[in-house]
Specification:
Elements (H helix, E strand, L loop, with lengths): L7 H16 L4 H5 L20 E5 L2 E4 H15 L4 H24 L6 H24 L5 H14 L4 E10 L2 H12 L4 H8 L11 E5 L6 H7 L11 E3 L2 E12 L5 H27 L7 H23 L20
Antiparallel strand pairs: 1-2, 3-4, 3-6, 5-6
C-alpha cells in the first residue's frame, strides 16, 4: 500500500505542474479581458493573521495558514527560491492541490476503504506530532537547558588550541628540502602556495586556522602541540603524506556560549523526555505482538537485555562511572 502522507516526490510533481502553470504566458483572452469593477466589500470581523485569504478556488479559501503548512511540507525543495517566488509557488501548489482534491472527490475516491485506512493512519500520526509539539516540548524550558549547560561547563577541563600552517608533499626528501629553505629564511606561506598538495589550505599559505585536540590525525596533532610559537617541525608522516608544520599561535580554548548550543541541548531534552514518556505509556498499555517473527525478535531482545542487566549488576563495583555527553563545540572542526 502507498504511504498515507503525501511524499515529497508526489508533492513536488504537483508543485512542478503548478510552477509550469504560473510561468505560462497569458492567453490573448486573459490579456484582453477587462478587470471586473470592484464591488464594495461587506463589513467583516478582523481576520487573524493566519486566516488571511491569499487565494480562492471555486469559492474555497486558501489562507496564510495553508501556505505555512505547505511550506513545512515542501520547505527543503523551495529553500533556494527568493521569498516572493517561494510564496507564489506555494500558492500555485495549493491551488492545484485543491483542484486535484476536488477532482478526487468527484470520483468518490474519498469514500474508498483504502482512503479511510490512510486517513486513520494519518490521524494517529498527526495526533502523535501534536502531542510531541504541544505536550512534550512544553515540559522543556531554557532554564533547564541552562542548568545542564552550566554543569557541563563546570566539568570541562581547560584546553589549549593552536593555529598552524603546513606544507603537504608526497615524500620525505621534498619535505626536508622545504624545511631547510624555511629554516634558512624562506617564506613559509609562499613555499606552501608553490608546493603544498593540500588544496584546502595552500592558497592561504598553508594556514589551517585554530583547532584543538582530536581534530587532526594523531601524528599531526602530536607534532604540532609540541611546537613553540614560530617553531618549524621536522617532516611528519601521516596517511596524507609528509608535512612541514609551523606553529602560529597557541591560546586557551574558549567554551561554547550557551546561545550557540542552546538549541542542541533543548532538542536532546525533548528526545529524552519523549523516550521517558514512551516507556511510561508502554508500561501502562497492553501490547500484544501477534506476528510470530516480530514476537520472536522482541523476546530475544528482552532476554539479551536481561542478561546484560545481570552482568552489569554483578560487575557494578568495577564498572567505570558513566561519561557525561559533552556540550557540542560551537565552531566546526577543521
Amino acid at each position: 500500500m502507498q504511504p498515507a502522507y503525501p511524499r515529497a516526490s508526489k508533492a513536488i510533481a504537483i508543485l512542478a505542474l503548478s510552477c509550469l502553470a504560473f510561468l505560462q504566458p497569458a492567453t490573448a483572452e486573459e490579456k484582453a479581458a477587462p478587470a471586473p469593477a470592484a464591488a464594495a466589500p461587506p463589513a467583516a470581523a478582523p481576520e487573524k493573521p493566519g486566516d488571511t485569504v491569499v487565494a480562492k478556488v471555486n469559492g474555497q479559501n486558501i489562507t496564510e495558514n495553508d501556505l505555512r503548512l505547505a511550506e513545512a511540507e515542501l520547505g527543503q525543495e523551495l529553500a533556494n527560491l527568493p521569498p516572493e517566488v517561494k510564496r507564489r509557488a506555494l500558492a500555485e501548489y495549493l491551488i492545484d492541490n485543491t483542484l486535484f482534491s476536488d477532482a478526487a472527490e468527484a470520483e468518490k475516491l474519498g469514500a474508498t476503504p483504502e482512503f479511510e485506512e490512510q486517513m486513520r493512519y494519518l490521524r494517529r500520526r498527526l495526533l502523535r506530532e501534536q502531542y510531541f509539539e504541544k505536550s512534550l516540548k512544553a515540559t522543556v524550558n531554557e532554564a533547564e537547558a541552562k542548568k545542564i549547560y552550566d554543569a557541563r561547563i563546570a566539568e570541562m577541563k581547560p584546553e589549549d588550541e593552536v593555529a598552524a600552517r603546513h606544507i603537504l608533499v608526497a615524500d620525505e626528501a621534498k619535505a626536508k628540502e622545504l624545511r631547510a629553505k624555511i629554516v634558512g629564511g624562506g617564506d613559509f606561506a609562499a613555499l606552501a602556495k608553490e608546493n603544498s598538495t593540500d588544496t584546502g589550505s595552500k592558497e592561504q599559505g598553508g594556514l589551517l586556522g585554530y583547532f584543538g585536540k582530536g581534530q587532526m590525525v594523531p601524528e599531526f596533532e602530536a607534532a604540532v602541540f609540541k611546537l613553540q610559537e614560530g617553531e618549524i617541525s621536522e617532516p611528519v608522516k601521516t596517511s596524507f603524506g609528509w608535512h612541514v608544520i609551523k606553529l602560529e599561535d597557541r591560546r586557551r580554548k574558549e567554551p561554547p556560549t550557551f546561545d550557540s548550543v542552546k538549541a542542541t541541548i533543548l532538542n536532546s531534552l525533548v528526545v529524552r523526555k519523549a523516550q521517558e514518556k514512551a516507556v511510561e505509556l508502554r508500561g501502562k498499555a497492553q501490547v500484544e505482538y501477534v506476528d510470530a517473527d516480530i514476537k520472536k525478535q522482541v523476546e530475544e531482545h528482552k532476554q539479551k537485555q536481561a542478561e546484560q542487566a545481570k552482568q552489569q549488576a554483578e560487575g557494578l563495583k568495577k564498572a567505570p562511572e558513566p561519561q557525561q555527553t559533552p556540550i557540542p563545540d560551537a565552531a566546526p572542526k577543521k
